[in-house]
Write a structure and sequence with these properties.
The complex is a heterodimer of chains A (84) and B (676).
Chain A (H helix, E strand, L loop, with lengths): L1 H27 L1 H4 L2 E2 L2 E2 H42 L1
Antiparallel strand pairs in A: 1-2
Helix pairs in contact in A: 1-3
Chain B lengths: L1 H6 L4 H22 L5 H6 L6 H12 L2 H14 L5 H24 L4 H9 L2 H33 L5 H50 L2 H5 L16 H4 L5 H12 L14 H6 L11 E5 H11 L3 E4 L7 E4 L8 H14 L2 E5 L4 E6 L3 H4 L6 H20 L3 H4 L8 H32 L15 H4 L11 H41 L5 H23 L7 H25 L5 H26 L6 H6 L1 H8 L2 H18 L8 H9 L10 H7 L1
Helix pairs in contact in B: 2-9, 2-21, 4-9, 4-19, 5-8, 5-19, 5-21, 5-23, 6-17, 6-19, 6-23, 6-28, 7-8, 8-9, 8-21, 8-22, 8-23, 8-24, 9-19, 9-21, 9-22, 12-17, 12-26, 14-15, 17-23, 17-26, 17-27, 21-22, 23-24, 23-27, 24-26, 24-27
Classes of the chains: A mainly alpha (84), B mainly alpha (676).
């Protein structure tokens, strides 16, 4: 459970840095964030398009690790059960 | 009712597609109703829905009228700032996945109130938790009803908004009371794909004709029509901190604001008493009276009390007697001129107050303009917190996690939901961008004719290029809109009806009820909730669809999210802590959003107060930034104070929440209770 929570908190951290950092970037570097990329302003491109794949990656990593953790935990309990 | 229907010009394509969607939904509801027999089938579909079906169904239920119509309308109206909505709607699932999805499924209870009771062995807490299913549910149904009214008013031009709400509300209520949840799983899954098709295909055709997403965002986009005066300018629309988040601060800066020192509270009464002899003022005219009397007279004309500074002039003035009896308005303007001449400035103060200040000292009381960008940043953060945490606390979405076979499947399902809805959410803002360039006349309309209908109307522009194509595509988006509000309203109806029938009736009112009685209670509750939802929906035509959904999220974020998060991960939580935090946080958020919405609907006369206090307005309109931490803090503090009440079997409960199923620790909460 503790390892699961650590994993959750790490993934949430990565996500929050991006999510809460974007308004700050808009606030402090408005000219840079208004740079045009393929017609979009940079900030529109990040928020309206690129943010979704970014979150998928975090979710994918989390699920892979989380299921591996659970398997390891199960294996551990089963092994210690056999010893008794 | 019949004759106006016939007199209208109804586009046959649009009507046909909408009718097909509605009849398919109803047919599937009836069809699967024959297959759902037991109470367990009715509530959570027998807990055996595969990951793919369940992910499509959750997505189908989640993508509401706010996602399908509201986001496009809001992006068109407000620009960049509205993009936070789709992004956070999708990303909120990450929080759900990281902290809540797995444990909740493993605990194995039907509803959130079940979880609340099971985690703390407290039937009273169940009752508290039920309240919020209904609060959040009703807040969430209102925008769905607006979507329904707007769509029907578009399909049948001239049909009253309210009739659309009644019609759609009645159809869905009937469907739910006959089909239950099993029907809904299948229908929801189908409707996700219907919505995905309906939002993406018209966009690809529109972009092929008018130019792609990026090029339409350029200020000199091809085919762009001139904007009306009511539309925001390009500079504020396309960049962060635009109209949506700066509205309150800009309203405050529109007129100069003053801060009066405390001694102003003394009022004129003492001053009048000190200026003898007080001449009673008459409407006809006044001669040789103290200035204070004039001010008092001015205030009484407006039904306000007056506040002044201590060095208010004590001299006597004359107010000319006019030839004939003046009207109240003439008398007021005459008084205003006299006061200006005497060096007194009168400012409308807070509610029911007038401040009379010697003009010479006015500038010392004037407040600097508020920092628009800083307040806008605050608004943005509060919105983000509400949407991200709120997703993890939506009762009608959470109930679906119990339809997963196990915790691993619950996590996999969430992953797929994120992908399915993430792809969807790229499209609605494109409608908003294209709508701004091609349909700017929507800016001038309000209510059901405003920007909220851009998704429905935009494709019909293609009729100018290829006759018929626009009608077909517009019919498709109308069908998608039907799918959107029908599926979400059904889901909400199921979870609210579940709360009422399962929790209030089955556990509180009549625990000894037979299965047949429970089924009847379910149907009866569905009808009651459907009627209330229709009545509420008829009143909210003026509010933006997306905005209303955001407020439901804020309430969920301040009540259920802290409860689920801390209950799943913190052993030290007690039932008193959980109840205190959830009630205080959730109710305060509810009061805040209600105050601002009632003002916007002209039910409460608080406009002047909000203009004077932009920070208060923002914190009430978007309460998550203080309400979520407050709820969490209260839960922790009260739990620490009542640490003796920690359930004795908390270790076992934590194991059930977190241990993998293969260990055989899983105990279905319901089974356990049936064993007693």
């Amino acid at each position: 459970m503790r390892r699961q929570l650590t994993l959750s908190v790490c993934c949430a951290g990565a996500f929050l840095v991006a999510l809460l950092g974007l308004p700050l970037a808009n606030y402090f570097f408005p000219e840079f964030m208004a740079t045009r990329v393929l017609g979009f302003t940079l900030t529109w491109l990040i928020l309206g398009v690129l943010f979704f794949p970014f979150v998928w990656i975090i979710a994918w990593v989390f699920i892979k690790r989380s299921i591996a953790l659970e398997d390891a935990e199960t294996a551990e309990v089963v092994r210690s059960g056999r010893k008794q | 009712m019949i004759t106006p229907f016939l007199a209208m010009t109804v586009d046959p394509w649009i009507l046909a597609f909408s009718l097909i969607t509605v009849s398919a939904t109803i047919f599937m509801g009836f069809w699967s109703a024959r297959q759902s027999r037991t109470a367990s089938d009715f509530f959570v579909a027998g807990r055996s829905v595969s990951v793919g079906w369940n992910a499509s169904a959750i997505s189908g239920e989640y993508l509401s009228a706010a996602s399908f119509m509201g986001i496009a309308g809001m992006v068109m109206k407000n620009g960049y700032d509205a993009l936070w909505y789709p992004v956070c709607y999708a990303c909120g699932y990450l929080f759900l996945l990281l902290f809540i999805a797995g444990p909740l499924r493993r605990f194995g209870a039907y509803t959130i109130p079940d979880f609340a009771e099971g985690r703390y062995d407290s039937p009273i807490f169940r009752k508290v938790a039920v309240i919020f299913v209904l609060f959040i549910g009703f807040f969430y149904t209102m925008p769905q009803m607006k979507g329904a009214g707007t769509t029907l008013a578009y399909i049948f031009p001239g049909l009253d908004y309210r009739w659309g709400v009644i019609l759609v509300g009645a159809v869905i209520t009937l469907n739910v009371s006959l089909g239950g949840m099993k029907g809904i799983t299948l229908v929801q899954a189908f409707q996700y794909w219907a919505k995905m098709f309906a939002i993406s295909v018209p966009i690809f055709v529109l972009m092929a004709v008018y130019g792609n997403y990026g090029s339409q965002l350029l200020p000199n986009a091809a085919g762009r029509k001139p904007l009306p005066a009511t539309a925001p300018a390009d500079t504020t629309w396309g960049s962060p901190f635009g109209p949506l988040t700066t509205k309150a601060a800009k309203a405050a800066n529109a007129s100069p604001r003053f801060h009066l020192p405390p001694e102003f509270r003394a009022g004129l009464v003492e001053l009048l008493a000190s200026q003898s002899p007080p001449t009673p003022p008459t409407a006809a005219g006044l001669s040789n009276v103290p200035v204070a009397v004039l001010v008092e007279k001015y205030a009484s004309l407006q039904g306000a009390k007056v506040l002044t500074s201590s060095n208010f002039p004590t001299r006597l003035v004359s107010y000319p007697t006019p030839a004939k009896e003046p009207t109240a308005a003439e008398f007021k303007s005459g008084l205003e001129q006299t006061l200006t001449r005497e060096g007194i400035t009168v400012i409308p103060g807070g509610t029911g107050e007038i401040w009379a200040v010697p003009t010479a000292e006015l500038s010392s009381y004037r407040l600097p303009p508020v920092n628009v960008r800083a307040l806008s940043l605050l608004y943005t953060y509060s919105l983000i917190i509400a949407l991200v945490c709120g997703t993890a606390g939506l009762p009608h979405i959470l109930v679906r996690f119990y339809t997963n076979p196990d915790g691993v499947a619950a996590k996999r399902t969430t992953m797929w939901v994120m992908i399915l809805i993430g792809i969807f959410y790229v499209f609605p803002p494109i409608f908003g961008v294209l709508g701004r360039n091609l349909l700017p006349e929507l800016y001038s309309a309000v209510g059901a004719k405003g920007t909220d209908k851009v998704v429905l109307e935009l494709p019909s522009l293609l009729n100018q290029k290829v006759p018929g194509l626009g009608s077909v595509l517009s019919g498709i988006t109308c069908a998608g809109a039907f799918a959107a509000f029908m599926s979400t309203f059904s889901g909400l109806l199921v979870s609210m009806t579940g709360a009422l029938a399962h929790d209030v009736y089955g556990r509180i009112l009549r625990p000894q009820a037979t299965p047949a009685e429970r089924m009847r209670a379910f149907k009866f509750s569905a009808v009651i909730i459907g009627i209330v939802a229709i009545l509420l929906g008829m009143r909210v035509e003026k509010l933006d669809i997306n905005f209303m959904v955001g407020q439901a999220f804020a309430i969920a974020a301040a009540s259920y999210f802290p409860l689920l998060f801390l209950s799943a991960w913190w052993r030290g939580m007690t039932v008193k802590g959980a109840a205190t935090g959830m009630l205080v946080g959730g109710l305060l958020a509810l009061v805040g959003v209600s105050l601002t919405s009632f003002t916007d609907l002209k039910v409460l006369p608080l406009d002047a107060y909000w203009a004077a206090h932009p920070l208060a307005r923002i914190l009430c309109e978007q309460p998550a930034i203080w309400a979520v931490p407050l709820a969490i803090l209260l839960m922790i503090v009260v739990s620490k104070l009542t640490a003796r009440d920690i359930p004795a079997d908390v270790r076992m409960k934590m194991l059930v929440l977190h241990a993998p199923e293969q260990l055989g620790l899983k105990q279905e909460y319901i089974q356990e209770h049936q064993g007693h």
